[in-house]
Each structure stands twice: as structure tokens, then as C-alpha cells.
Amino acid sequence: MASIELDKKDRKILGILQRRGNIPNNELAELVNLSPSTCLRRVRRLEELGVIRGYVALLDAEKVGRSLCVFVRVKLDHKSRADVERFEQEVLKYPEVTECHVVMGEDDFLLKIMVADLNDFQKFLLDHLTAIPGLSTVISSAVLRQVKSTTELLV
């Protein structure tokens, strides 16, 4: 899919919305030097084009009991379309899996798992992840400290 042309005003709107998704339209309009109606039209256009996919509240993982982040590399025994789709459908069932990426290289998938602690991760790993048929290798790396985390794509 081709990228969408964004002018300076669009980029400024998107930059602000990435940091303050709940900003009132009149404040946003003032920050980007547009009338509220023009600003709202631009935001609606960006939503309709799919540039803005939605709005979320970013939670503090520790405060909601999900302070341990583990990245898991998964390799499948077989890589047929059916095997890949079966694995994808299985991981969609688990809220602990906050991201699942199909990757190139030695591994087939990279998962981001968020759980309370190592005991919860071990339970998830044994009861759910390794119970999925067709796994060849599962390699886990627990995060000791997060250096950077952002959801911003444009600044």
C-alpha cells in the first residue's frame, strides 16, 4: 500500500494526537493554527484514510499487574500455510501476548508477552504456548530494564 501524502499541518496534528489522543478539538486547532471546524475536518479525513487507526489509553504495566515483559522467539516444525495460520489463531486467544510478529530469518515468530512475574510466565509457557502443536524451538528473553518505548511514528 502506498503511503499517503501528509502536509505540515497533517503531520503536526498527528504528532500532537500521538502524545495527547484525548485533546479537545478546540485545543488541537489552536496548537496547529487552524479553525476548529477545519481541524476537525482534517482529523476526520485522516481517520477515514486509515492514517489514524484508533485512540487508546496507555496503561502503566506495573500498576495493572503486568510488569514482566518477555520476548519469545518461536520456530515452527513445518512452515506450511496451515501450520502458520494455526499458530497465529492460537496466540490470538491469549491476552498475555500483546504483540505477535511473523519474522524473517532463523525464527518464524516474535512474541511480546506481558505477565505479572516469572511464575506467571512459566505457567503461560507450559500451559499455553508450548502446548500449541508444531513448535520446534521456543527461546525466551526477559526484559531487565526498558530503555525506550514509544508509540509515536511521526514527530
TrEMBL record:
Provide this UniProt record's keywords sorted from A to Z: DNA-binding, Transcription, Transcription regulation
Task: Give the originating organism.
Answer: Meiothermus granaticius NBRC 107808
PROSITE patterns in alphabetical order = HTH_ASNC_1, HTH_ASNC_2
Q: Which SUPFAM superfamilies match?
A: Dimeric alpha+beta barrel, Winged helix' DNA-binding domain
* Alphabetical list of InterPro entries matching this protein: ArsR-like_HTH, AsnC-type_HTH_dom, Dimeric_a/b-barrel, Tscrpt_reg_AsnC-like, Tscrpt_reg_AsnC/Lrp_C, Tscrpt_reg_HTH_AsnC-type_CS, WH-like_DNA-bd_sf, WH_DNA-bd_sf
| Keyword Transcription attached | yes
Gene Ontology cellular component list: cytosol
Transferase among keywords: no
Q: Which segments constitute the HTH asnC-type domain?
A: 6-67
> A GO biological process this protein is involved in?
response to amino acid
Highest taxon in the source lineage: Bacteria
What protein is this chain from? Leucine-responsive regulatory protein
- GO molecular function terms attached to this record: sequence-specific DNA binding
